[in-house]
């Protein structure tokens, strides 16, 4: 009863409290998980999965999009985390997301392959622009994005842009195309303090992508991307074969005759039960149970 104020009505948990006042733990995921791990001798580090964007961030995005005639999202795939962007899109209200005319991904062959799966994990309209390289060591993504922004603004009359990138080079675009509105989505560990100060001094709104919770669809996208790459790798290193052909070769080489019943029994008992074995060094082999 002395800890009654720590819980929502009729919700309880066995808990060891310290002397400090934690407040209502079950209304704060980050605080709850940190204390739960601590109580069991562990340290909780998965903050990206529980931290959500603040109300001020939400208001900034909603007011920016609502105050626009047309809004287009421009994404520098070399300087933006696809999972964080997916989380940001997922957090937007449906009516706000519907006002974004399209999302243009400016991609390079060396960018994350997860970008190819973004359209499966959001209802937003995605346009994928894969840029070619003239010189092997030189990406053209930033130039293509600037050109695309100018086309959308001056030809298609788009007045507002959500720019997903932490690259300081885009300050030249933002400061030069003064008739367009920009809201820049940056990542804390990639953006420079000088660029942030420039945006503050010039009243250019910005948000940190790190604030958005990476659960839900972004987690599904993470799993989807990893499994897709694993499937591609397996396809490169594993040659498909036919089970019946394998059995025919085995019967021919051993000179063994099996009746239909024996063949079916052998198939059910041994062939269908074959499995992958992963050795301690990570090497994979196929084994049959005997």
Please characterize this protein's 3D structure:
The protein is an alpha/beta fold and 290 residues long. The protein folds into 3 domains: 4-45, no CATH class; 55-228, Rossmann fold, CATH 3.40.50.1010; 243-287, no CATH class. 39% of the residues lie in helices and 14% in strands. It contains 10 helices and 8 strands. It has helices at 29-39, 55-66, 82-91, 94-98, 141-154, 171-176, 193-201, 216-237, 243-254, 260-271; strands at 71-76, 100-107, 126-130, 160-164, 181-186, 206-208, 275-278, 284-287. The strands form 2 sheets. It has a 6-stranded parallel sheet, with helices on both faces. A two-stranded antiparallel ribbon has the order 7-8. Helix 3 (82-91) runs antiparallel to helix 8. The model has no long low-confidence stretch (mean pLDDT 85).
- Strands of the widest sheet, in order across it, are 3-2-1-4-5-6
Largest sheet: 6 strands, parallel
Q: Could you tell me the mean pLDDT?
A: 85
H/E order of the elements? HHEHHEEHEHEHEHHHEE
What's the CATH superfamily of the largest domain, by name? 5'-nuclease
Number of helices: 10
| CATH fold group of the largest domain | Rossmann fold
Radius of gyration: 27 Å
Portion of residues in beta strands equals 5-15%
State the CATH class of the largest domain.
Alpha Beta
Q: Please, what is the oligomeric state?
A: single chain
Which of globular, elongated, flat, extended, rod-shaped describes the shape?
flat
| Class from secondary-structure proportions | alpha/beta
Tally the beta strands. Answer: 8
Number of discrete domains? 3
């Amino acid at each position: 009863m002395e800890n009654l104020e720590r819980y929502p009505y009729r919700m309880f948990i066995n808990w060891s409290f310290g002397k400090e006042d934690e407040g209502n733990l079950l209304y704060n995921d980050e605080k709850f998980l940190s204390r739960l791990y601590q109580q069991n001798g562990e340290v909780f580090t998965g903050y990206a999965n529980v931290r959500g964007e603040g109300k001020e961030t939400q208001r900034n995005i909603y007011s920016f999009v609502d105050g626009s005639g047309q809004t287009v999202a421009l994404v520098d795939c070399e300087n933006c985390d696809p999972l964080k962007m997916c989380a940001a899109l997922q957090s937007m209200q449906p009516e706000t997301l519907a006002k974004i005319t399209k999302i243009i991904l400016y991609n390079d062959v060396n960018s994350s392959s997860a970008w190819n799966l973004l359209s499966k994990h959001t209802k937003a309209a995605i346009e994928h622009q894969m840029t070619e390289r003239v010189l092997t060591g030189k990406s053209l993504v930033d130039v293509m994005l600037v050109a695309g922004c100018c086309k959308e603004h001056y030809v298609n009359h788009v007045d507002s842009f959500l720019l997903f990138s932490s690259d300081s080079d885009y300050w030249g675009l933002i400061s030069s195309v003064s008739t367009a509105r920009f809201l820049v989505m940056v990542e804390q560990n990639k953006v420079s303090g000088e660029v942030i100060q420039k945006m503050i001094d010039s009243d250019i709104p910005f948000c940190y992508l790190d604030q958005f919770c990476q659960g839900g669809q972004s987690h599904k996208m993470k799993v989807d991307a990893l499994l897709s790459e694993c499937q591609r790798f397996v396809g490169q290193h594993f040659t498909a074969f036919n089970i019946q052909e394998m059995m025919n070769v085995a019967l021919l080489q051993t000179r063994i005759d099996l009746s239909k019943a024996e063949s079916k029994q052998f198939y059910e008992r041994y062939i269908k039960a074959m499995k992958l074995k992963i050795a301690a060094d990570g090497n994979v082999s196929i084994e049959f149970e005997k």
